[in-house]
Write a structure and sequence with these properties.
The chain is of the alpha+beta class and 141 residues long. It contains six helices and three strands; from the N terminus they run H-H-E-H-H-E-E-H-H. It has a three-stranded antiparallel beta sheet with strand order 1-3-2. The two termini are 27 Å apart.
Amino acid sequence: MTEAGTCAVLIRQIHTELEKNANNSLRQDDLTMSQINVLIELAQAEGNQMELKRLEQLLHVAQSTAAGIVRRLEQKGFVEGYGNPEDKRIKMIRITPEGLACCEKSKANAQDAEKQLTSALTDTERTILVSLLQKVRDSFS
């Protein structure tokens, strides 16, 4: 097998294409993948909120990076920050209804991208591909 056909190269090429398409789609709404990832994490969190520190951990980014992403999302009205009622030193982040709507739009775009990505596959092949990708991902655990 040539280097161009290795799993790592193929996965990188697929990732690059997906990321490019996602960023082009998000650009229309003046958003980035990092910002969408924050909205998704908040939308899935209990009460649609979490501590900024927890968000940093989930995204594997520095405190300053997470704070910058949150600040830009606050300016767009997608999230709001507030002090924890029990400890004002702890910054909490909550997704707004506008942020939830943006998150839903992003999920729909992601589903469309996945349909396009797997359009050359049969339903059975698609199921096998997902199963194999999960096995590969799980091998890193």
